Amino acid sequence: MPPKKGQVFLRYSDELKKEAVRLRLEERLTYAQIRGRLGIKGDAQIIEWVRRQQNGESFEDYRGSWGRKLDKQARFRTIEKMSHMYPIMMLCRIAEVSRSGYYKWKKILKPRATHRVERDTNLKEQILAIHRVLKRFLSCTNLSFTNRLFC
Prior knowledge:
Blueprint: H1 14-25, H2 31-38, H3 43-55, H4 72-82, H5 88-95, H6 99-134, H7 140-150
Helix pairs in contact: 1-2, 1-3, 4-5
Protein backbone atom coordinates (compact mmCIF):
# COMPACT_ATOMS: atom_id res chain seq x y z
CA MET A 1 0.00 0.00 0.00
CA PRO A 2 1.53 3.37 -0.96
CA PRO A 3 1.97 5.98 1.76
CA LYS A 4 -0.76 8.53 2.26
CA LYS A 5 -0.12 12.16 1.43
CA GLY A 6 1.60 13.85 4.35
CA GLN A 7 2.32 10.55 6.09
CA VAL A 8 5.42 10.68 8.27
CA PHE A 9 7.58 7.61 8.87
CA LEU A 10 9.31 7.32 12.22
CA ARG A 11 12.92 6.23 12.47
CA TYR A 12 14.01 4.60 15.68
CA SER A 13 17.59 4.54 16.97
CA ASP A 14 19.53 1.29 17.17
CA GLU A 15 19.64 1.63 20.97
CA LEU A 16 15.84 1.74 21.14
CA LYS A 17 15.56 -1.26 18.83
CA LYS A 18 18.03 -3.24 20.95
CA GLU A 19 16.16 -2.29 24.10
CA ALA A 20 12.84 -3.42 22.58
CA VAL A 21 14.39 -6.75 21.59
CA ARG A 22 15.92 -7.17 25.05
CA LEU A 23 12.60 -6.44 26.74
CA ARG A 24 10.87 -9.01 24.55
CA LEU A 25 13.45 -11.80 24.78
CA GLU A 26 14.86 -11.39 28.29
CA GLU A 27 12.03 -9.84 30.29
CA ARG A 28 9.27 -11.51 28.25
CA LEU A 29 7.16 -8.35 28.07
CA THR A 30 4.21 -8.29 25.69
CA TYR A 31 4.33 -6.18 22.56
CA ALA A 32 1.76 -3.79 24.05
CA GLN A 33 3.91 -3.30 27.17
CA ILE A 34 7.01 -2.65 25.06
CA ARG A 35 5.12 -0.19 22.84
CA GLY A 36 3.82 1.67 25.90
CA ARG A 37 7.20 1.80 27.60
CA LEU A 38 9.24 2.85 24.55
CA GLY A 39 6.63 4.74 22.49
CA ILE A 40 6.76 2.49 19.44
CA LYS A 41 3.82 2.66 17.04
CA GLY A 42 3.15 -0.96 16.13
CA ASP A 43 3.81 -4.58 17.01
CA ALA A 44 5.05 -5.40 13.51
CA GLN A 45 8.18 -3.31 14.00
CA ILE A 46 9.09 -5.05 17.23
CA ILE A 47 8.44 -8.47 15.66
CA GLU A 48 10.73 -7.54 12.75
CA TRP A 49 13.51 -6.35 15.08
CA VAL A 50 13.31 -9.55 17.14
CA ARG A 51 13.44 -11.64 13.95
CA ARG A 52 16.49 -9.73 12.70
CA GLN A 53 18.23 -10.08 16.06
CA GLN A 54 17.60 -13.83 16.15
CA ASN A 55 18.86 -14.26 12.57
CA GLY A 56 21.99 -12.22 13.29
CA GLU A 57 21.02 -9.47 10.83
CA SER A 58 21.58 -5.75 11.35
CA PHE A 59 18.75 -3.37 12.15
CA GLU A 60 19.65 -1.26 9.10
CA ASP A 61 16.78 -0.81 6.67
CA TYR A 62 18.13 -0.90 3.12
CA ARG A 63 14.92 0.03 1.35
CA GLY A 64 15.39 3.14 -0.79
CA SER A 65 19.14 3.10 -0.20
CA TRP A 66 20.23 4.19 -3.68
CA GLY A 67 21.65 7.37 -2.19
CA ARG A 68 23.93 5.38 0.10
CA LYS A 69 25.41 3.42 -2.77
CA LEU A 70 29.18 3.52 -3.24
CA ASP A 71 30.32 6.16 -5.68
CA LYS A 72 31.78 4.98 -8.97
CA GLN A 73 35.37 5.65 -7.92
CA ALA A 74 34.99 3.30 -4.94
CA ARG A 75 33.33 0.65 -7.11
CA PHE A 76 36.12 0.89 -9.68
CA ARG A 77 38.76 0.53 -6.94
CA THR A 78 36.96 -2.54 -5.59
CA ILE A 79 36.81 -4.07 -9.07
CA GLU A 80 40.53 -3.44 -9.49
CA LYS A 81 41.32 -5.13 -6.16
CA MET A 82 39.20 -8.18 -6.98
CA SER A 83 40.12 -8.45 -10.67
CA HIS A 84 42.85 -11.03 -10.04
CA MET A 85 40.28 -13.39 -8.46
CA TYR A 86 37.19 -12.87 -10.64
CA PRO A 87 36.47 -11.89 -14.25
CA ILE A 88 36.14 -8.14 -14.76
CA MET A 89 32.95 -8.60 -16.76
CA MET A 90 31.25 -10.26 -13.78
CA LEU A 91 32.57 -7.69 -11.30
CA CYS A 92 31.32 -4.82 -13.47
CA ARG A 93 27.88 -6.41 -13.69
CA ILE A 94 27.71 -6.82 -9.90
CA ALA A 95 28.95 -3.26 -9.29
CA GLU A 96 26.48 -1.94 -11.87
CA VAL A 97 29.12 -0.14 -13.94
CA SER A 98 30.00 -0.55 -17.59
CA ARG A 99 33.14 -2.41 -18.55
CA SER A 100 34.15 0.44 -20.83
CA GLY A 101 33.70 2.88 -17.94
CA TYR A 102 35.97 0.77 -15.76
CA TYR A 103 38.69 0.61 -18.43
CA LYS A 104 38.39 4.36 -19.06
CA TRP A 105 38.84 4.98 -15.32
CA LYS A 106 41.81 2.62 -15.21
CA LYS A 107 43.53 4.15 -18.26
CA ILE A 108 42.75 7.87 -17.89
CA LEU A 109 40.99 8.93 -14.71
CA LYS A 110 42.98 6.92 -12.16
CA PRO A 111 46.40 8.22 -13.32
CA ARG A 112 44.95 11.73 -13.47
CA ALA A 113 43.72 11.45 -9.88
CA THR A 114 47.10 10.06 -8.77
CA HIS A 115 48.86 12.94 -10.50
CA ARG A 116 46.50 15.42 -8.82
CA VAL A 117 47.29 13.96 -5.39
CA GLU A 118 51.04 14.25 -6.04
CA ARG A 119 50.62 17.83 -7.30
CA ASP A 120 48.54 18.78 -4.26
CA THR A 121 51.12 17.24 -1.93
CA ASN A 122 53.93 19.21 -3.59
CA LEU A 123 51.89 22.41 -3.42
CA LYS A 124 51.15 21.84 0.26
CA GLU A 125 54.86 21.35 0.96
CA GLN A 126 55.68 24.61 -0.86
CA ILE A 127 53.02 26.53 1.08
CA LEU A 128 54.28 25.17 4.40
CA ALA A 129 57.89 26.00 3.45
CA ILE A 130 56.89 29.60 2.65
CA HIS A 131 54.95 29.76 5.91
CA ARG A 132 57.99 28.56 7.89
CA VAL A 133 60.25 31.16 6.25
CA LEU A 134 57.84 34.11 6.62
CA LYS A 135 56.27 32.86 9.89
CA ARG A 136 52.77 33.95 8.82
CA PHE A 137 49.92 32.85 6.60
CA LEU A 138 49.33 34.61 3.30
CA SER A 139 46.33 35.24 1.10
CA CYS A 140 46.10 33.46 -2.25
CA THR A 141 47.35 36.51 -4.15
CA ASN A 142 50.34 37.09 -1.88
CA LEU A 143 51.09 33.39 -1.78
CA SER A 144 51.13 33.23 -5.57
CA PHE A 145 53.53 36.20 -5.76
CA THR A 146 55.75 34.79 -2.98
CA ASN A 147 55.75 31.37 -4.60
CA ARG A 148 57.19 32.93 -7.78
CA LEU A 149 59.95 34.55 -5.71
CA PHE A 150 60.93 31.34 -3.94
CA CYS A 151 60.69 28.95 -6.89
